[in-house]
Design goal:
Strand 14 and strand 15 form a beta hairpin. The strands form 8 sheets. This protein has a 5-stranded antiparallel beta sheet with strand order 29-1-34-33-32, with no helix packed on it. The chain has a single domain, classed as Methylamine Dehydrogenase, Chain H (7 Propeller). The chain is globular. By secondary structure, it is mainly β. Belongs to the WD repeat ESC family. InterPro entries: PcG_WD-repeat, WD40/YVTN_repeat-like_dom_sf, WD40_repeat_dom_sf, WD40_rpt.
């Protein structure tokens, strides 16, 4: 397995308000600053309520974080839920924050000043995503059923909206976003159970900075057949996709048929129109768009479901997973639940085990990708999986009030508790009654795509019960931070002797 396969251990858990704090703020989002070179003490931002807090990770005996700056929104009723990092022209770090107010605020971390405010959404903003290609491009998802892409370039300050994605995209609140590493593709998920893929033009284009931003009416891919409830987290894993929905207690890994980011996207004219009517005998019956289901893809075909990861007790929505995926290191998936537990999967370990155990997953020889993405993400169009396109597993009616639910047990307040002993870290394993083959299938084997793979490692934050809302990795992979209800922050570390050198070839 090697050093790169080492999974994190709980170092500390804390409430920023201190052990006597009565603050019940839910931290909904955490993001590490992505522009710090690996090895430098990483900085992260957390947001929730009316607060956004900037912290630095430090390896000290009695402390693991240093609070650098605290922003308090002037609106005391603010309910912030999303944070992203950007960078000013002079290199100053910027944080973008959003929540129940339709506005998105951009703050300068170095000076503490409000840089600008983005206005254009008609309702609350639920997620933000910065382009991995440039810190000048920001995407947002809203209760107004739209996805917007903004230019943060100061020359576009008067007209920052660059792209509007709406129309035949989402019919209900949009909850989640995820950029492809190329910046050309953007995933969105929402309360209509849809996962959409939008093709984003190269920005700035001729409309950027004008009062007529580029309009995208149709996503290149759209499906209501992957999930049965609110889709609240979507991420690209190379050209594959990871996503989850409330009430399903699992994370899915899947692929869009024929999608290959190395090829130019199909033209918009190839996007199938959504179904609008059905026939009963010779009489057409027209249906509202919200009642039609299915999968539409400009690449032809549908999608292939590949793996399913077990995430028990994660029925609420706004419980989001984290993904560490850097060249030369094992890609690690991490998720939390409503019972103070975190689950870690080494995706490279899964791929290597599957390549050995299941001949259906073996790939032909191919050259390494220039960007060193994990080999499971490359050559997907040539992968002879033989899996049929999957239909919906059923239907579920979601109750929006579940957003307000939280863990039933109130926490024991603590300033910072250093995690020691064996009680907080446990490696998941199936029951002893299972055969060795069944155990291996549950932890490392790749087989039935409807058979959940349990975590390689499970960690429980002791003495407290809280819902884990979001997780984030430092760029070097040595730190992982989880945040959630009751003001809780949990700090995980690995490689305390230093970040190991990247391995050569494909990670």
């Amino acid at each position: 397995m090697g050093l790169h396969g080492e999974l994190p251990s709980l170092r500390a858990y804390l409430r920023l308000g201190g052990k006597d704090s009565n603050d019940t703020t839910t931290w909904y989002d955490v993001k590490f600053y992505p522009y710090t070179p690996p090895g430098v003490d990483p900085v992260f931002a957390v947001t929730g309520g009316c607060n956004t807090i900037i912290c630095r990770c430090v390896l000290q005996k009695e402390s693991c974080i240093e609070v650098l700056r605290v922003y308090k929104d002037e609106d005391t009723d603010a309910a912030l839920n999303s944070v992203e990092w950007s960078q000013a022209e002079n290199g100053d770090p910027l944080v973008c924050v959003s929540g129940n107010n339709p506005q998105i605020k951009i703050l300068n971390v170095k000076t503490g000043e409000l840089v600008t405010t983005l206005t254009g959404h008609g309702d609350a903003v639920n997620d933000l995503a910065i382009s991995p290609v440039t810190p000048k491009i920001l995407a947002s998802a809203s209760n107004d059923n739209t996805v917007k892409v903004w230019s943060l370039d100061p020359i576009h300050r008067n007209q920052p909206t660059a792209v509007n994605c709406f129309g035949e995209g989402h019919k209900e609140t949009v909850l989640a976003l995820g950029f492809h590493r190329t910046g050309q593709y953007l995933l969105s998920g929402g309360m209509d159970t849809k996962v959409n893929l939008w093709v984003i033009p190269k920005l700035p284009d001729q409309n950027t900075g004008t009062d007529k931003p580029t309009l995208i009416h149709y996503p290149h891919f759209s499906s209501t057949e992957i999930h049965t409830d609110f889709v609240d987290c979507v991420r690209f894993y190379g050209d594959l996709i990871l996503s989850r929905a409330s009430k399903e207690n699992k994370i899915l890994l899947w692929a869009i048929d024929n999608f290959n980011s190395e090829n130019p996207p199909p033209p918009y004219s190839s996007v199938p129109m959504p179904p609008s009517r059905i026939s009963k005998g010779t009489t057409p019956i027209w249906l509202p768009s919200a009642q039609t289901t299915g999968t539409r893809s400009a690449w032809g075909g549908r999608f292939q479901r590949l793996l399913q990861f077990e995430e028990p007790y994660s029925t609420y929505f706004y419980i989001r997973f984290g993904l560490f995926h850097e060249p030369g290191k094992h890609p690690i998936l991490v998720a939390g639940n409503e019972k103070s537990r975190l689950f870690f999967w080494d995706l490279q370990r899964l791929e290597e085990a599957g390549a050995i155990e299941d001949s259906a997953f073996k790939r032909p020889e191919r050259k390494a990708k220039k960007d060193n993405v994990a080999s499971i993400t490359s050559g997907i169009s040539n992968l002879p999986l033989g899996l049929p396109s999957r239909m919906r597993e059923g239907s579920a009616v979601s109750n929006a009030s579940s957003a307000a639910q939280s863990s039933s047990s109130m926490p024991v307040s603590t300033t910072a508790s250093v995690a020691t002993g064996t009680g907080s870290n446990t490696t998941s394993a199936p029951s002893k009654s299972k055969t060795a083959k069944e155990k291996d299938d549950r932890t490392t084997g790749i087989g039935d795509s409807f058979h959940s793979i349990i975590a390689h490692k499970t960690v429980m934050v002791p003495k407290i019960t809280f819902t884990v809302r979001q997780l984030s990795w430092s760029r070097g992979g040595e730190w992982c931070v989880a945040v959630g209800d009751h003001g809780m922050i949990a700090i995980f570390t690995r490689w305390e002797e230093g970040i190991p050198e990247p391995t050569g070839g494909v990670s």
